[in-house]
Structures are given as structure tokens and as C-alpha cells.
Specification:
The chain is of the alpha+beta class. It has one domain: Sandwich (Immunoglobulin-like). It has three helices and eleven strands; from the N terminus they run αββαββββαβββββ. The strands form three sheets. Strands 1-2-3-8 form a four-stranded antiparallel sheet, with no helix packed on it. Strands 6-5-9-11 form a four-stranded antiparallel sheet, with no helix packed on it. Strand 1 and strand 2 (32-38) form a beta hairpin. It is globular.
Length: 183
């Protein structure tokens, strides 16, 4: 009986599905729509990463990026650049998803100077969902959508913006203009 109760709870945490790009703060440019959503609370991250991976507590801000390509041509995303700009103008580059388990916000240290990611207990940020949900698309065929998370060492603040550049139309090689999404 207990096993039957556990399965629905696990399934519920794995049920996250990104919506269309225009469901989030978004911008459209030449038949390409880019939407982004900051996941800045445990209530938002739990359905995606599970209840133990409270990324925001450890100074990691996950941002969902959804790209919809309504063009006939494919988009090359191999050199996509995604940055956050804070309200005071600082630019924050995305972390490699493999780095996330090793990054802890210095302000989250327990008394005695120990990091909350102590070696004496399992690292709550060492979960496969961080890599599984990371944005990994390299090419986006016409009429298709790609989505995934970028991870930043930052905290959500009023006036923050996300810049997305580096998309190239194939086979023409034409650069797609950059996108700016305010949060």
C-alpha cells in the first residue's frame, strides 16, 4: 500500500512541461519567439527539480528558456549566448549545469563557517534533473520548439533582464537579432 502511495508523488514531481514561449515574458523577432521564466522559489522549482534541490536557497537562479521557430529554415543554436543583466547593470553568465552542484552562495553558510553543502551529507544540488532539464538544443528545425533551463549565480531582483544572442539561420548563415526579455 505504501509503495502505491509513493509512485503518484514521484510522478507528480516529474510532470512539469514547459508551455509555449508566449506564455512567459517573451519577445518575437522575424518568426522566432523567445520566452523566459525565472524560477525564484521552492514552489516553482519543486515540480521540476524535486523538493530537496532548493536551488534558490543556494544562490542558483534557474531560468526556463523556450524558443519557438516558426520559420521554414532551421536555427543553429550551437553558439547561443544567454546572460542576465541585473538592475545595476552587472552581467551574469550562465553556469555549466555540471557546475551547479559545486556552487553555494557564500551568504548561506551555517554558523561556524561551513557551507550548507557539507561533505558530511548528501549534496542536495547533486540531482540528475539539473542536467536533464538544462537547455541543450544545438539545432532547431523550422516549425519546432526547444526549451530548457539556464542556471545563474544570482538572485531575482526587480528590473532584471535576460539577453539571448548567437542564433544563426541555416543554411544562409544570417544572424538572428538578439532578444531582450525583462522580468
Amino acid at each position: 500500500m505504501l509503495a502505491a502511495m509513493v509512485v503518484p508523488l514521484v510522478a507528480a514531481e516529474q510532470s512539469f512541461r514547459p508551455g509555449p514561449a508566449d506564455q512567459y515574458p517573451h519577445q518575437s523577432n522575424g518568426d522566432v519567439t523567445v520566452g523566459a521564466q525565472v524560477f525564484d522559489s521552492l514552489a516553482m522549482t519543486k515540480p521540476v527539480f524535486g523538493k530537496k534541490a532548493d536551488l534558490v536557497r543556494y544562490g542558483i537562479l534557474p531560468v526556463l528558456l523556450v524558443i519557438e521557430n516558426q520559420r521554414k529554415e532551421a536555427l543553429d543554436l550551437q553558439n547561443i549566448e544567454v546572460q542576465l543583466e541585473t538592475s545595476d547593470g552587472r552581467h551574469v553568465i550562465a553556469l555549466d549545469p555540471q557546475e551547479v552542484p559545486f556552487v553555494a552562495d557564500g551568504q548561506q553558510r551555517a554558523p561556524g563557517g561551513k557551507s550548507p553543502l557539507s561533505r558530511n551529507k548528501k549534496n542536495p544540488l547533486d540531482v540528475p534533473e539539473i542536467s536533464q532539464w538544462a537547455f541543450s538544443a544545438k539545432m532547431l528545425p523550422g516549425g519546432q520548439k526547444a526549451s530548457g533551463f539556464f542556471y545563474f549565480r544570482a538572485q531575482m531582483e526587480q528590473g532584471m533582464k535576460m539577453y539571448i544572442s548567437g542564433m544563426v539561420e541555416r543554411p544562409s548563415g544570417k544572424q538572428v537579432l538578439y532578444f531582450e526579455i525583462p522580468f
